[in-house]
Here is the input.
Amino acid sequence: MPSAEETSVHQERPAVRPTEQDEIAAAGSELIGGPVGRWARTGTGPLTPVRVMVLVAIGMFALGMVQKLPCYDAAWFQGVNSQYTHACYSDIPHLYVGRGFADGLIPYADRLNGDMEYLEYPVLTGLFMQVASWLTPASDTDTAQLREQMYWMANAGMLMICAVVIVVCVARTHRDRPWDGLLVALAPAFALTATINWDLFAGALTAAAMLMWSRGRAFAFGVLIGLATAAKLYPVLLLGPLLVLCLRAGRTREFGKALTGAVAAWLVVNLPVMLHSPEGWKKFYTFSQERQIDFGSFWLVITQRTGKPIDVGTVNTASVLLMIVLCAGIAGLALGARRRPRFAQLAFLVVAAFILTNKVYSPQYVLWLIPLAALARPRWRDFLIWQACEVMYFLGIWMYLAYTMGGDRHQGLPEDGYQVAIALHLLGTLYLCAVVVRDILMPERDPVRRDGSDDPSGGVLDGAPDTVALGRAVREPGRPEEAGDEAGSAPPAH
Here is the structure.
């Protein structure tokens, strides 16, 4: 670990100004007076970078709520096609009734009416939904529509808190780069998809975990990852790249602490429900296995182009195999790169691989990637290219549903057009993955390392020497690098 003196010096370094390194950020700053001057004092006064980004995040979240206004007023409740033509669909009001919250049913314990026997969400997300129902005001004179509106508002308020947590955590994970959080706060897909489902909750826990790891708190990281996995499955994937990096750096003890915290936290949340209501608890896992090919995935394009369905068991097996192959490739990249990759880079690649190979790629899944993308590749050009593809897909899926659900009117986007939207959606994510891989292979192009940093989000990995690597001599722990040696991870220049 860096010494106390190194840490003190690191904390005193001036914050990186995006307008000095990023031409897109410099051009965008003209809207508010241009780039920060050489002698400007930042980080002082009431409007610190984090506070500015919190205000921006709240403003963007509010704009996302306004975008849902046509549905809030009528479309969610009248069963009409306008929730698709206005691109304002949300699961939240529909599941308030459909999953028994309006009737006071207890998630996982009480059986539901209709196709779903139990709530098909992980335990901690079910608790989030239940708390929102408790916060939903109700009286005997309320109409069903009013109660669904209030339930959506209660959830929106809680999800706004999650959005703020994500922005703050991203801004503070890289100590010298607080303005990277602005990528999250201003992401258009972040605002558009924030209230479709409950994904922001798991995203907030994951972002907090990344912050804890960057501060060297391995057990706290594990606890938060365990809680995040109890809300959504994808956060557990972060343990994979962390294991590989800890093996390369000889920091397996810290990984053990993280793994212990994750398992303990997951069990504390899940075990009571597992023992009390085993059938309700396992619904999420059986639903994930039995779910058919769905929107946004390349599997759907294959079935639509060929006109032949694919057995769900075949898709499950193929998806797992593809994921294993991609993870093996990422592990090989992590061990074979001449300089150890940053944790955020590998975390982004693994989660992106999971989404790309999955049998469903819902529009709100972009919320899983946005915080990781801001840490892995904080460059506005690449980020906005990806976001443009995501916004196009956001519009495409609702226009496609409008076309298929609109009866004889066929108002919206036909099947061929929707396949183009899926292709853009997938290619945008693949593009950002390719840029991150290039940064790993060519670390001199990594914007985070331009100032001499090693891995600001890496915690104990930041500046640690390598003990394991592929295809080259391994430097002994604690041994300084020889002149001209680019094999290991050089300590940060303080």
